[in-house]
Design a protein that fits this description.
Elements lengths: L3 H4 L3 E3 L2 E3 L3 E3 L14 H12 L4 E3 L3 E2 L18 H14 L3 E7 L15 E2 L13 E2 L2 H20 L4 E6 L4 H6 L14 H4 L1 H13 L6 E6 L10 H14 L4 E5 L9 H4 L12 H9 L4 E5 L5 H9 L5 E3 L2 H5 L3 H6 L17 H5 L15 H13 L4 E5 L3 H12 L3 E6 L7 H5 L8 H14 L3 E4 L5 H4 L5 E4 L3 E2 L9 E2 L7 H6 L7 E6 L5 H11 L3 E5 L14 H8 L4 E4 L3 E6 L2 E5 L6 E4 L4 E5 L3 E2 L10 E4 L9 H13 L5 H8 L6
Helix pairs in contact: 2-3, 4-7, 15-24, 16-18, 16-23, 21-22
Bound molecules: flavin mononucleotide and iron/sulfur cluster (SF4).
The site of flavin mononucleotide has 25 residues, from helix 12 and helix 14.
Family: In the N-terminal section; belongs to the NADH:flavin oxidoreductase/NADH oxidase family.
Protein name: 2,4-dienoyl-CoA reductase-like NADH-dependent reductase (Old Yellow Enzyme family)
Organism: Saccharothrix texasensis
Length: 669
Amino acid sequence: MTTPDELLTPVRAGRLELRNRVVVPAHTTNFAVDGLFSDRHLAYHRARAEGGVGLIITEGMRVHPTSLGRANTVSAFDDRVVGSLAELVRAVHGGGAKLAAQLLHVGRQAGGHNVLTAAWGASALPWSSTAAIPHSMTTDEIAELVDAFAAAAVRVAAAGVDAVELHLGHGHLLQQFLSPATNHRDDAYGGSLTNRLRLAREVVEAVLGALPGTMPVILRVSADEFLDGGLDLEQMLVATELLVRDYRFDVLHVSHSAYVGTGSVATQIADMSFPALPFRHLPRAFKAAFPDLAVLAVGRVDDLDNAAALVADGSADLVALARPHIALPTLVASRTDPAAPPARECIACNQGCAGRLELGLGISCVVNPEVGLEREWAALREAARHAPKLRVLVVGGGTAGMEAASAAASAGHRVTLVEAAPELGGALRLAAKLPMRGRFGLFVEQLAATTRHLGVDVRLGVRADAALLAEGWDHVVFATGAAAPAEPVRATSGSAYPEIPVDRAVEEPGGTGRHVVLVDEDGTATALALADHLLHEGRRVTLVTDRAALSWRVPVYSKPALLDRLRGRGFSAVLLRAPTGMAGDSMILTDPLSGRAEQVDQVSSVVFLRPREANAHPPVPSGVSTTSVGDAYAPRTALEAAFEGRLAGLAAARAVGVRAAAAALRGRL
Ligand SMILES: Cc1cc2nc3c(=O)[nH]c(=O)nc-3n(C[C@H](O)[C@H](O)[C@H](O)COP(=O)(O)O)c2cc1C
Ligand code: SF4
């Protein structure tokens, strides 16, 4: 069996020589400024190159203005990109890794919002029911696109990249032409496989013709669209065979999914509701079909043990890990460094990366708040190191509290953390009890391990009473979390709701009765994950919300998969209805627009997912500085809690340099 050490020895993949088999695949960061790689990109990728990876693939570089979904993506169609990419090449080479440039046209999902001209697609079919209708490309536009790919290839080669990746996957434009689900054309580019593959061929030919003959080329494909009427593995093996027979590629990068507002898009960046390695059969099938080509596997590989297993069983030659590198830039280096602190593994929550990607914001990470702000955090850490050392008390052992305590300890402060509960973890400990949210438990374990590794004095089952607060602390961080409102929800008509608190429904799902109504005022994945938990117990679940959308805070990269898991199991949802009372065991719902009432029958219990309220904290003796963080400051998610906690811990000392460095972290991402 391939051990992680063998995974980490030099390898040749076609004409590409790498120091190991581990790859950072393309991931759009939204860090670009004016369409160019920014200083933030340099710091971000330098950290990952120094972290030991063999190859980094740039985020999708847009080959044409019609592919610019957002202003903060990278424009491969702009000559100025050469200089900024060359700087990135130097940064990555400086860290010992190689850099490939991904050339991309996203096609119809560009939406046209950024440039106010329609997005281009194979056919006039929007990617989701709420998306703009794209323009079905003319043959002149197709020719313009092919030229744009070639011109972009010339630019990235001039910048000195080590390889070029052509994106024929993920439901982007070339796949939109290839797939019968998205190509309804009746010209030379539609209909038969030969016709649907024509654009990909023209692009490949133009790009290979434009690149120096020695430049390694990676072809990224979706081996399965997981879509009715779309491309499956068998068809993709045939299509790929037609390409590799005629053109030289060095690596086949075997991904999956289409950009369609169904479960398909939610497989691309599969979240924690999937098990690890859910798509390993795809690279394995490609390796069997193309044994002479290097195959790059990707998708919830999660860690280097899994990566080694993929190589060991012959499924892949190279293995890509995107989110694990977002979470831990030193993924490879930590493996071989006995002094490395406890690892931070990606928990596949999709909150900081995919969630912010969807909002057009710079990516971040729940388990690594330093993503995209590497220089600013380094400056704060340096300032904190030189500041006076304090006695710091952290009250609360959830995400924000453990982050604050660890950060303060890493800056040299003497830190005590008190937690009233018998265990660390706060709100995440409850979330992790839901099968769909289980990997939050891993985050709790990792936070706890870091806290202890850094020598924090952790006291469980201890409340911060007046006596404790008077023990001579210099600084107190309150990370005391939030709680559901103490007042029960009052029915305006009939009897009281048969309400069960969320925590009881999670911990004793058997006690909810046969038909549970979840009233969702929260919009996160909690309602869907709780529904799944109750369905496992044989309950019927009706989700009610007064909003026009279901689970409105869950990214499109997760929501369709979560809904698919509930389908056909006794789950239903009622939108735009507010609960107003009970009549016997029927719950009265009122349409907020018309005022009309209707009812849901045979309700055994109701769980209200309501906005939580910050827990108050006791006063501290005068002269002691305090900070409130996470839910105790304003109830939000683990993403904000981790960021704020780390900031508070490093900024505990009020020295001028620390304050300035901390201020530089606010409002930057
Ligand atoms: C924030 C984010 C942005 C992404 N952007 C791109 C992209 O620009 N091009 C691309 O081919 N894949 C993109 N991906 C997909 C990744 O390359 C990868 O296939 C996916 O994250 C699954 O791998 P993982 O489980 O190791 O994260 C993106 C993924 C994430 C998380
Ligand atoms: S935000 Fe969540 S899914 Fe994204 S990289 Fe971080 S831990 Fe992984």
